[in-house]
């Protein structure tokens, strides 16, 4: 299938590792121009090298940016426009908020999670809209969590802001459709990134178990019997972020091997 991404420009937030980097690589394989972002120049240089080693036809750039800062997001989009001339596809992604229950967090914690997991997406969308409107269309994909459909224990910050994002994305799908801009949200279940390995490692320590046993138990709860690969998740990001997707907007799709049973 021609995903109609060759020569388009894709901006992927928080893409020095994990699902963001896997998504950037999948878009690179479609010969799009890619702008990756993150807070560490060193990690971004490494990620850029990896993307360039795929020897695709598009160009690759990076920009150091803390996505919790409005001014930095504005500067990131201005930089992307300067280098590539447009932003055709925006992939919103961020680190996950800290784990915990209601009484673990004060107002500063709530504000940080709001800035990281909701406002970063709002600000990035605001900054790319003029380019997408000018070129007559665009695609936005939000990387969120299965907590959009079913709350996760001990993750109250994620449960709150991911739900807010669903409302935002559905409203925007209505407002942006006349401009040819389609927006969808993808929720990972358990995809084997460094973050998931770190979480399993911490759980193993707390429960005095081996990390492999924690992973095996966790995989047993997934109908497909295993964690997903970042490339599998990225394949969905690329489709919904592509111009082959001409009629799906405002949707929330889980990529979870059947883990979540909510309808
Ligand atoms: P990850 O921790 O491997 O990657 C997150 C990236 O975000 C990192 O590159 C990190 O440097 C970057 N980041 C964090 N804060 C940032 C900031 N202020 N500015 C710029 N960059 C920042 O995580 P992942 O596994 O790739 O997950 C990506 C998203 O998906 C997270 O929000 C996570 O909570 C969510 N998620 C992932 C899974 C999974 O199975 N991997 C499951 C549910 C939800």
UniProtKB/TrEMBL annotation:
Domain of life the protein comes from: Bacteria
InterPro entries: NAD(P)-bd_dom_sf, SDR, SDR_fam
Species this chain originates from: Marinococcus halophilus
BP GO terms, sorted: bile acid metabolic process
This protein's name: 3-oxoacyl-ACP reductase
GO molecular function, one term: oxidoreductase activity
Keywords from the UniProt entry: Oxidoreductase
SUPFAM superfamilies assigned: NAD(P)-binding Rossmann-fold domains (SSF51735)
PANTHER family: 3-OXOACYL-(ACYL-CARRIER-PROTEIN) REDUCTASE, NADPH-DEPENDENT REDUCTASE BACG
Family, per entry: Belongs to the short-chain dehydrogenases/reductases (SDR) family.
């Amino acid at each position: 299938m021609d995903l109609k991404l060759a020569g388009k420009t894709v901006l992927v937030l928080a893409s020095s590792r994990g699902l963001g980097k896997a998504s950037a690589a999948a878009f690179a394989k479609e010969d799009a121009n890619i702008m990756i972002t993150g807070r560490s120049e060193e990690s971004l240089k490494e990620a850029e090298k990896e993307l360039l080693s795929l020897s695709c036809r598009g160009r690759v750039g990076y920009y150091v940016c803390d996505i919790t800062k409005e001014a930095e997001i504005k500067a990131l989009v201005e930089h992307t426009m300067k280098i590539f001339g447009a932003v055709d596809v925006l992939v919103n992604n961020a680190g996950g908020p800290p784990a915990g229950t209601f009484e673990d967090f004060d107002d500063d914690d709530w504000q940080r999670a709001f800035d990281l997991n909701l406002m970063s997406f709002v600000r990035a969308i605001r900054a790319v809209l003029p380019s997408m409107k000018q070129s007559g269309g665009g695609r936005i994909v939000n990387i969120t969590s299965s907590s959009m459909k079913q709350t996760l224990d001990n993750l109250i910050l994620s449960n709150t802001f991911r739900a807010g994002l669903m409302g935002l994305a559905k409203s925007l799908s209505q407002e942006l459709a006349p401009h040819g801009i389609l927006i969808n949200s993808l929720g990972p279940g358990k995809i084997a990134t460094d973050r998931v390995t770190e979480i399993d490692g911490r759980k193993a320590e707390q429960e005095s178990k081996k990390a492999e046993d924690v992973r095996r138990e966790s995989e047993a709860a997934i109908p497909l019997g295993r964690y997903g690969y970042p490339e599998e998740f990225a394949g969905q990001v690329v489709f919904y972020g592509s111009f082959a997707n001409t009629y799906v907007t405002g949707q929330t799709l889980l990529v979870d091997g059947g883990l979540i049973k909510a309808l």
